[in-house]
User: What shape does this take?
Amino acid sequence: MTTPLNVGVIGLGRAFTLMLPTFAADPRIALVAASDPRSEARERFAQEFGAKAYEDAEALCADPDVKVVYIASPHQFHVAHVKAAAKHGKHILVEKPMALSIEDCKEMIVSARQANVRLLVGHSHSFDLPYLRARAMIKSGAYGHVRMINAMNFTDFLYRPRRPEELNTAQGGGVVFSQAAHQVDIVRLLAGAKAASVRAFTGNWDAARNTEGAYSAQIKFDDGSFASLTYSGYAHFDTDEFMGWWGELGQGRDGGVTYGRARANLQKATSIADEIAMKNARAYGPSGRDAFQTGGELSYNHFGLVVVSCERADLRPTPQGVMVYGDKTRHLDELPSPKIPRAEVVDELYAAAMLATAPLHSGEWGLATLEICLAILEAARTGQEVKLSHQV
Assistant: This one.
């Protein structure tokens, strides 16, 4: 029988709600503690999971029953919370982006190393099984070397309810910090080489949402391959249309019937307080886990259209597997339907914490991804190619 991994959660907001179906369904995870500034969220968590609840994150980290701390707090608190968890000897899963500066990332890595604990960065969509399968297919050598990757995602990200700092780039707001981390992780995973430099443009096209809502970036890798990354969160075109109307979280979509819903819902907020209340309604709280359970058939999570051009085939990860476009034929390398959403995160976390397996999505991995996100902002600001120096 598998020994469950005792997890304490810092932050019961939106990131936690996306991981909650995984943690609640996977027998390898036991949710034993949580901290959050909202009393209603703490009370519901304690009631629902028979767990301890703390207002203070430091107190949660000191709890001897907690083996792993899942840090799902806002970006700007990650460094302090990682250092607190490491100080108390806990393994750590910290949400992306790992932090907002290279220096903070380095501090987090050193803290974990000195405490002899594992530090993982995620969930990013590079954990998703179709991307991992594509990576394994590339590494097999059957399709030759990767030459080019194209990644494109169009969503309604900018018009979901936000706190003010989420619309302030200096405080980690905008799509580059929150969304490029997914796309950069996927591209790095599939390229299998170190990124060398970045060129980029960003778009800030709505004065009422005054931050980056779009970007287009090119990454050059040290083996001569290159990648093109495009993202828009302006709630017009939706790349789920290219994914058979399977949503990013593996849920079946309505085929565009509710087009424009994000913008329409946001118009109901007449003040900052209204928008914060709308955001809190999407977080864990009085409604408990029921509001976040997905019914019906599941597919794998995805992050829009990705095409990997190898020497002898193009590979396209999909919600059901990997499409292979060879010299003469095409076929789907199909994956069995997932029983637990995002189970791949638990696979890596459990192996790191319980089996002492070095994680793929380590602190060094998260630092390399953040460096590229920062390079996208710098390249767009200066119009210059930005060289990279912290890649793995």
About this structure: The two ends are 36 Å apart (CA to CA). The chain has two domains: 5-125+342-362, 126-339+373-387. DSSP finds eleven helices and 15 strands in the chain.
